[in-house]
Specification:
The structure is a homotetramer. By secondary structure, chain A is mostly helical. Helices cover 66% and strands 0% of the residues of chain A. Chain A contains six helices and no strands. In chain A, helix 2 (30-46) runs antiparallel to helix 4 (63-87).
Chain lengths: 122, 122, 122, 122
């Protein structure tokens, strides 16, 4: 099983089963899950806190560090999936809709190579 | 297209194309993306900041609020996908591996209905 | 020494000395410090992640938990002081200026007992 | 009034008055305030998200950007003060105690110029 054969629904079910077996939906109010997601996002940041952006690009060269970062990213995803389950959202639809909005917000001609109006590097 | 027919690889490609068209990989050092992910996680929290956990469970009853929350969750996912792309990770493998670890860390018998050792409600 | 006799300048100096002895200003780019601050804020949230707002009000009844929460809040403050030092800001001026802005943004008549326009409880 | 003449107690009182006039203590459960603090920390990060650590050191050269960053830092502090008020903490004591712990955790000889064991630059 890999990203090319795993659907979002597969992962949602995987997470729902993990939660159900522990009777944890009682804790999974979206308010609480939003905190959990932010906490895991912060743990992911810890790996990059003191290194430069350039050094952070080389993290994937080190299998141990990559695995540690992958674990934190997985935690972020697990809570995102749990929240998706609680809210009854179709995540792929939400992502496609948001990217379509961002296509309009960040027109290619205006933003190519620039992250925003204040970025005057080219 | 929905969660049951969309693979992780589909979403990764969708995001990679969005980024490539804008030549934004230059900004997508994992360090920067970890900040972006945490920033979007905070924007998601904003929707739940002042309401109770119980009220947060009813957000999905309101289509407008649900759409707004879905947009923020999609932003979190987009940056998670961008980081996955930069790191060259297989996300479904990382998630399965992390959930397997959590199965061992939180045995069902010990954690059913409890979030941790300090939770003495049963 | 207590809050009534300690000035902001005292704490800024206290933190500056701690940093200088370790030659850590090399790491204290505001970008990095903003990540550190967010990471410590997340560690503070961990204490409240799964409990209700009401339960969180009773944390101060338990001296051990209060001390643990106080430690996390202190970490947040330390990084805020470090950033203040790096930026050369007068923190008390910044706080007074921001509260003055908020006085205008949240007029008492309109916001008494309400956190925002969507809060219709009274 | 400046950092050298303003005590922590002054700022705590300043914030307590702002909150009391709006009857906002009803919202200020520590759980909620921990979310607010993390949200403001994320807004502070937004200013540094796409720039390099070196560029972030030059933010203080630009008065407009410095003022904007100062506003976000002030927001972080305001919620930290509000939480201090709710918890009944003496903040200067908590900070001194935490820095004393960190003095032991990060001995000067071992950590001078290094942020951690994995930092092998000297």
């Amino acid at each position: 099983m890999s990203d090319s054969t795993t659907t979002i629904a597969d992962l949602k079910q995987f997470m729902a089963d993990f939660v159900a077996r522990r009777d944890w939906r009682r804790f999974h109010a979206p308010k609480n899950l939003s905190m959990s997601l932010a906490i895991e996002a912060a743990e992911l940041m810890e790996h990059f806190q003191w290194i430069s952006p350039e050094e952070s690009r080389r993290v994937s060269d080190n299998p141990d560090r990559l695995a540690a970062v992958g674990d934190e990213l997985a935690d972020v995803l697990c809570y995102a999936l749990a929240m998706t389950n609680e809210l009854g959202l179709d995540l792929s639809t939400a992502i496609r809709r948001k990217i379509a909005k961002n296509e309009l917000k960040y027109p290619v001609e205006e933003y190519r190579g620039r992250y925003g109006p204040e970025d005057v590097r080219d």
